[in-house]
Design a protein that fits this description.
The structure is a single chain. The chain is of the alpha/beta class. It contains twelve helices and 15 strands. The chain has three domains: 75 residues, no CATH class; 96 residues, Beta-Lactamase (2-Layer Sandwich), CATH 3.30.450; 219 residues, P-loop containing nucleotide triphosphate hydrolases (Rossmann fold, 3-Layer(aba) Sandwich), CATH 3.40.50.300. The relative contact order is 0.09.
């Protein structure tokens, strides 16, 4: 529950914002065409004027804070601005005006940020969507979008969201962790890195499995760096996050339906199209639906070395999830045929885990060694064993077989 003083400040912010919007209209100031310094000066002058006219006892520090937050309201995404500019924040989760959480170093924690009310949250959502031509209202209460910097945004409002509008942001970073960064942080050993790079260089089909926030995209991006430079690569993503320093790459991105409900391009559509583009390898950001059918068939028909990720808590669970995706997306075959398709298409599963303290690491690397009797037979190439005394992890590599 917000304190009385905090609530009074939020009410003040609301009044100042409305006042400033009126002043912008009166002066004919176009926010999108004004320089940031000029606009900030305008905001600062008018905030000071409002405070003086209403004889509000604000300290110089509070006045500066009010001017900055009002500027963020006018020129940016309001209370989200400081969180978006903080490089230590990976995820931003807004559950309501007073419930804002962030993920830092793999650990969720409550942020000091808050919104004025539900309308304020909705206003920020619509500001995010405005340049994208996307709509959010009662007839279309859910939306996926992307900020100009590449960050992924999911927003949902009532009546679907029962407790008020909600925002989830997965921030995009230009600075991806290097192999040495991951080794130094204990996410993998040098031996594990050698195993993984060897698998990429020898064109093994790799599936990276893990739960939410375990670093699947980070590992996929890392492994992609080891693809030989003379190969043609096609990447397919819902939101472009991979950054491959590669001379021969084609990047494809899915597209949601427009306001008329048409124009949707799915990952499955793009995988089918990619097969006509003569790729040596296909990299699919994440397996979620029917694209798994075409991806497995591509892995089986001359596109060795392809890679993707999947949400799953273990290597065996990943295979079960693939079976389910095949079944629900119309792959009409018996259990034995499905097992043969999966077992012969996938070469390696890289399993990722995350400890309660936020530490992410490669927990297992297994090779698929299908036999006529067991299409899902696995051999361990690398395994992490969690210590029970101090919570540390002991890493042991067993080599590529």
């Amino acid at each position: 529950m917000a304190t009385r003083v905090d609530q009074e400040y939020q009410d003040l912010k609301k009044r100042v914002h409305y006042f400033l919007v009126e002043r912008l209209d009166e002066e004919g100031v176009e926010v999108g065409k004004s320089g940031r310094e000029t606009l900030y000066g305008f905001v600062q002058d008018n905030v000071q004027s409002f405070v003086s006219q209403n004889r509000m006892p604000l300290s110089a520090q509070d006045l500066t804070l009010l001017a900055r937050e009002t500027f963020d309201e006018v020129a940016g995404f309001g209370p989200l601005e400081p969180l978006l500019s903080d490089d230590s924040v990976n995820d931003i989760l807004v559950n309501g005006p007073e419930d804002v959480f962030v993920e830092i170093a793999g650990v969720l924690q409550r942020a000091h940020t808050r919104f004025i009310d539900d309308d304020h949250v909705t206003r920020v959502i619509r500001r995010i969507l405005a340049p994208l031509g996307r709509r959010l209202d009662e007839s279309s209460p859910m939306v996926d979008a992307r900020l100009p910097d590449g960050s992924r945004v999911n927003a949902i409002i009532p009546p679907i969201a029962l407790d008020g509008p909600s925002i989830s942001i997965r921030k995009f970073t230009q600075k991806h962790l290097t192999a040495q960064d991951l080794v130094n942080s204990g996410s993998m050993t040098a031996e594990c890195l050698d195993v993984l790079t060897s698998l990429v260089e020898t064109r093994r089909n790799i599936l990276i499995s893990g739960g939410t926030g375990t670093g699947k995209t980070t590992i996929l991006n890392l492994l992609s760096q080891y693809i030989p430079r003379d190969e043609r690569v096609v990447t397919i993503e819902d939101s472009a996050e991979l950054q491959l320093n590669h001379p021969h790459i084609v990047r494809l991105e899915t597209r949601p339906a427009n306001t008329e409900g048409t124009g949707k391009i799915t990952a499955r559509d793009l995988v089918i199209n990619a097969l006509r583009m003569r790729p040596d390898r296909i990299i699919l950001g994440e397996v979620r639906a029917g694209e798994i059918i075409e991806l497995l068939q591509a892995m089986n028909t001359g596109h060795e070395g392809s890679m993707s990720t999947i949400h799953s808590n273990s290597a065996k669970d990943a295979l079960v999830r693939i079976e389910t995706l095949l079944a629900v997306n119309g792959y009409d075959a018996g259990e034995r045929a499905i097992g043969r398709l999966i077992g012969s298409s996938l070469d390696v599963i890289v399993q990722l885990s995350r400890l309660p303290n936020g530490r992410r690491f490669v927990s297992e690397v297994v090779a698929m060694k299908a036999t006529p009797d067991d299409p899902y037979r696995m051999e361990t190439l690398y395994r992490t064993e969690e210590g029970t005394d101090d919570g540390m992890v002991k890493l042991t590599g067993e080599g590529v077989r």
